[in-house]
């Protein structure tokens, strides 16, 4: 048996708006849209992607799953995403952590990790 990871599903009140926000933030392409769904991928034929699906209720509480990103320049990436509309959030990470927790326009948390020390 073989499994291929195809996508992460994110519930959204406005799938098109949130999906476009993430497409712009990641530099990804839109591969599918409908009234209730908006899918993006790194490239049209490259997976995994992120599929935003309509849900009527807004997010409540801390996300049980979130994405982590490791940039080349942590501070520059945090500044870029804040300028793009992300907000800083406290999920109990404490001071002095080597990552920054942000949230997208619908409140979904994600982390910008510190620079890798591996060669």
UniProtKB/TrEMBL annotation:
Q: Name one Pfam family in it.
A: Glyoxalase_6
Q: Where does the source fall among the domains of life?
A: Bacteria
Q: Where is the VOC domain?
A: 4-115
| The protein, known as | Glyoxalase
Species source reads Nocardioides currus
Lineage, top ranks: Bacteria, Bacillati, Actinomycetota, Actinomycetes, Propionibacteriales
């Amino acid at each position: 048996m073989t499994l291929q990871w195809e996508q992460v599903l994110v519930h959204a009140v406005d799938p098109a708006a949130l999906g476009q926000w993430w497409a712009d933030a990641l530099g990804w392409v839109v591969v599918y849209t409908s009234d209730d769904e908006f899918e993006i991928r790194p490239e049209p034929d490259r997976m995994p992607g992120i599929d935003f699906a309509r849900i009527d209720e807004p997010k409540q509480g801390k996300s049980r799953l979130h994405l982590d990103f490791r940039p080349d320049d942590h501070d520059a990436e945090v500044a870029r995403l804040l300028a793009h509309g992300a907000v800083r959030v406290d999920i109990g990470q404490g001071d002095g952590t080597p990552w920054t927790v942000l949230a997208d326009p619908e409140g979904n948390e994600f982390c910008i990790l510190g620079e890798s020390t591996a060669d």
